[in-house]
Specification:
Blueprint lengths: L10 H10 L6 H7 L5 H15 L3 E3 L4 E3 L6 E10 L2 E6 L13 E3 L14 E8 L8 E9 L6 E7 L5 E5 L8 E5 L8 E6 L8 E8 L6 H10 L7 H11 L9 E2 L6 E4 L8 E7 L5 E8 L1 H4 L5 H9 L3 E2 L4 E2 L4 H7 L7 E11 L5 E12 L2 E4 H10 L4 H20 L9 E5 L5 E6 L4 H23 L6 E3 L5 H12 L13 H9 L4 H13 L5 E3 L23 H13 L19 H5 L2 H30 L6 E10 L2 E6 L5 E5 L8 E4 L4 E4 L5 E3 L3 E10 L4 E6 L9 E2 L30
Parallel strand pairs: 5-7, 10-12, 13-20, 14-21, 29-34
Antiparallel strand pairs: 1-2, 3-4, 3-6, 4-5, 6-7, 8-9, 8-11, 9-10, 11-12, 15-16, 16-19, 17-18, 19-20, 22-23, 24-25, 26-27, 26-32, 27-28, 29-30, 30-31, 32-33
Helix pairs in contact: 4-17, 5-7, 10-11, 11-15, 12-14
């Protein structure tokens, strides 16, 4: 650091010193640098106070920095990992809310980059890259700091003495916490709170009041906060979306498909329409088909703020009462949505296939389409069953029968598992909760989408282009051994010396006549499966019995599909004239993604899991709310899980899942058989096993946590205990096992493969 002439410095000299100091610049360092003593130090203190009030500097007497800037040494919080590079913001940001915290690129020390995760806190030395910060901020981490205090979401309750308590909404948190500081919150309100001391006895203080926990839209709000789902777009993203929405279609440079009667078949409450289909006989016994997908890559270009926000979200998240979209509404629900009667930009997949469903050719174009009609699944099904004169639907069903024949020949995994559906009224209150119907209309759209996804993967492979595959690996050896042991308890054999295929499981299930037993084994087969994920190295899709599979059909709601579209733009030379103005010119893959898709594939696999957990948690809360008025009623239930501490059961026909604690199952000791998944009475020999039907009384239903608790009809509530150890199928870390031991669902309705 250069020496300065002695004497009280000017304001400019102070600002220059702060900006160029290699160390934190506090009052002491400034006084030493300028050789100040006595009265001059008092004058310096007054000058620094004035400069802070005038907005020239920020900080305290320990260290100052230019207002709007960042201290030379400060604590940073990692907010995202962008292709391996950590992006951080100051952990404590004091400027006015109108000044957003700067995004700082964190240059990790050798070997540390991979250890950084979103939410990590580090002490770092910062610097501006370029004159006056034109190149942004970068930081060099000095050491990793302990994690910041986690906030807890809960509801304020008051006891008889007037003491406030926080009842957590997370069912894993069993104990309420004393509230030391209500922060303006009132009894019954949903709040965020954080500990005020190291000891649990110190209690918590309320940091944010969220409102009525049972109000419409509250359950999804809880899930959004709990899982850290980004729900507010950056102002720059909104501005770019508005700009992108005004881009010309360039219809003269696209394939014009507006003459085709293309239809979109979607849920009746769909918020967006990103796919539509058309088919006709080819005159040779086969079919020509078109799968038109919203051309999102034309509007969302790599390197833009719009793209960064979409990448961070990874996917849209769908709740019964709202959607947290991957893209701003002007694109997701308007310009990119394939609305009936309006010209729309599309990526078109043209395929031809034989009467047996074998695809013989495919090609991809950028097109302009005009959707003939948007039809709900139920309406499409009704028209077909009624035999109405609808040439387009009739042609689609005929083409689908060919695709379905090919599907049957592949013999993909067929697990007929129910999916719950929450119907809300116009005020956001629960109208109905039921199991979703499985219609041929769903299968029609699903098989057309699968055909397009396979064509996209194979088309990119033919060009030796980068591919983001949708990968579903075969079951692991450990899971198969556990499944083999479990099936043996039903006198069924699973030979591990043979090639394990989806058809093997299908044949096993087909031979089971007893529906209760079939449901149990189906769930066991599901628990043995791996979780699907995204990656650039192909490993096939076990569940669908496909060698190459990529997600192409939902770029409005999945970033993976957007990456596949960009790769097709590059591979097949589909770039259109560059837009004028601020938007990036290129709509294909970025150079970073072209070089390596591993990091972004891992990131969007994580955001997908986050969305699935949030959606499932919210459904659980709605079901518990629906049942809270029926506590004390007896329901026909089926056991879906067995642990040493009790049973998990689901209400037949509704899907509400809950715990039957071992303490209410009688007054004798129960032995836990991990292989058979059975609790057995030591004296009576009575057995409780998976698949057993039981009449259970609903004892508790907590809408805030989504937890249900059952007890046997006529239970005496005697306390008992169990002995045994868990099996491999129920070990912690089983990706497909739902929370509380319930199975998840790898088969989604319609287009969610």
């Amino acid at each position: 650091m250069a020496k300065h002439p002695p004497g009280l410095p000017t304001r400019k000299q102070i600002l220059d010193f702060i900006a160029n100091s290699d160390d934190p610049a506090g009052k002491r360092e400034i006084a030493r640098a300028f050789g100040l003593k006595g009265q001059e130090k008092i004058q310096l203190k007054s000058m620094l106070k004035d400069m802070a009030e005038e907005g020239l500097i920020d900080g305290n007497r320990t260290a100052f920095h230019r207002m709007g800037g960042v201290p030379k040494v400060t604590v940073l919080r990692v907010i995202e990992i962008d292709e391996g590079e950590a992006i951080a913001v100051p952990d404590s940001w004091t400027p006015d809310d109108a000044v957003p915290p700067p995004r700082i690129r964190l240059r990790a020390l050798k070997g540390r980059d991979s250890a950084l995760r979103s939410g990590d806190r580090v002490l770092a030395r910062t610097e501006e890259a370029g004159p006056s910060g034109m190149g942004g901020w970068i930081a060099h981490p000095m050491k990793k700091l302990p994690a910041a205090i986690d906030q807890t979401m809960g509801v304020i309750e008051l006891d008889g003495a007037g003491q406030a308590w926080l009842a957590p909404v997370d069912k894993r948190e069993r104990n309420s916490m004393p509230v030391a500081d209500l922060g303006g919150a009132e009894e019954g309100q949903l709040v965020l709170a954080e500990p005020v001391g190291r000891s649990p006895r110190s209690g918590v203080k309320v940091t944010a009041v969220l409102g009525d926990p049972l109000a419409p839209r509250a359950f999804s709000l809880i899930a959004i906060h709990k899982h850290g789902i980004p729900f507010a777009f950056d102002p720059d993203t909104i501005d770019e979306a508005e700009l992108a929405a005004k881009l010309p279609l360039h219809a003269d440079k696209r394939e014009d498909l507006r003459h085709l009667p293309i239809v979109a078949i979607d849920p009746s409450d769909a918020r967006d329409h990103d796919d539509a289909i058309w088919a006709e006989p080819d005159g040779e016994g086969g079919f020509r088909a078109l799968i038109a997908i919203a051309d999102v890559s034309y509007y969302v270009r790599p390197g833009s703020s719009l793209d960064r926000d979409a990448r961070k979200r990874g996917n849209s998240v769908y709740f019964p009462d709202r959607v947290v979209p991957m893209l701003p509404e002007v694109l997701s629900a308007d310009v990119c949505s394939l609305r009936a009667g309006e010209d729309r930009a599309a990526m078109a997949c043209h395929v031809t296939f034989t009467a047996e469903g074998k695809v013989t050719s495919w090609r991809f174009t950028r097109a302009v389409v005009r959707i003939h009609e948007v039809i709900a699944y139920e309406e499409a099904q009704r028209r077909i069953e009624a035999g109405e004169d609808d040439p387009q639907l009739t042609a689609l069903w005929s083409a689908w029968r060919a695709l379905n024949a090919a599907r049957n020949a592949r013999d993909p995994l067929a697990l007929d598992l129910p999916e719950r559906r929450v119907v809300l009224d116009e005020h956001g209150k629960i109208q109905e909760i039921a199991l979703r119907q499985s219609l041929d209309a769903h299968k029609v759209v699903e098989d057309f989408m699968i055909t397009a996804n396979v064509a996209a993967a194979k088309a990119l492979e033919a060009k030796f282009a980068p591919v983001v595959y949708r990968i579903h690996e075969p079951p692991s050896r450990e899971k198969l051994v556990a499944l083999k042991d479990y099936l043996a308890t039903f006198d069924k054999q699973l030979s591990l010396g043979q090639v394990i295929t989806p058809g093997l499981f299908n044949r096993m299930l087909k031979d089971i006549a007893d529906e209760s037993e079939k449901a149990v084994i189906m769930e066991a087969v599901l628990r043995s499966q791996t979780q699907a994920f995204y990656g650039p190295r192909n490993a096939g899709h076990f569940g669908l019995a496909l060698g190459s599979y990529a997600h192409f059909t939902s770029p409005i709601r999945r970033y993976s599909d957007l990456l596949v579209h960009r790769a097709l733009v590059d591979g097949y030379g589909l770039e259109l004239p560059a837009p004028k103005g601020k938007l990036p010119a290129h709509s294909g893959l970025s150079e970073r993604d072209r070089a390596d898709l591993t990091r972004v594939s891992e990131a969007i696999s994580q955001t997908e899991r986050r969305a699935m957990m949030a959606e499932r948690d919210t459904i659980d809360r709605y079901v518990a709310a629906w049942l809270s008025a029926r506590v004390g009623e007896v329901f026909e239930c089926r056991v879906t899980g067995v642990q040493r501490f009790g049973l998990f059961a689901t209400i037949i026909g509704l899907g509400g899942d809950g715990l039957v604690p071992i303490s209410v199952l009688g007054d004798e000791r129960l032995n836990y058989d991990d292989k058979a998944q059975v609790l057995e009475g030591e004296r009576s020999g009575i057995k409780y096993g998976m698949g057993h039907r039981m009449r259970l009384k609903l004892a508790e239903a907590n809408p805030l946590t989504g937890a249900l608790k059952f007890e046997p009809e006529g239970s005496t509530g005697g306390r008992i205990e169990a002995r045994g150890k868990p099996s491999a199928l129920h070990k912690k870390g089983n990706h497909l096992a739902g929370k509380r031991g319930r199975p998840g669902n790898i088969r989604h309705q319609g287009k969610r493969k």
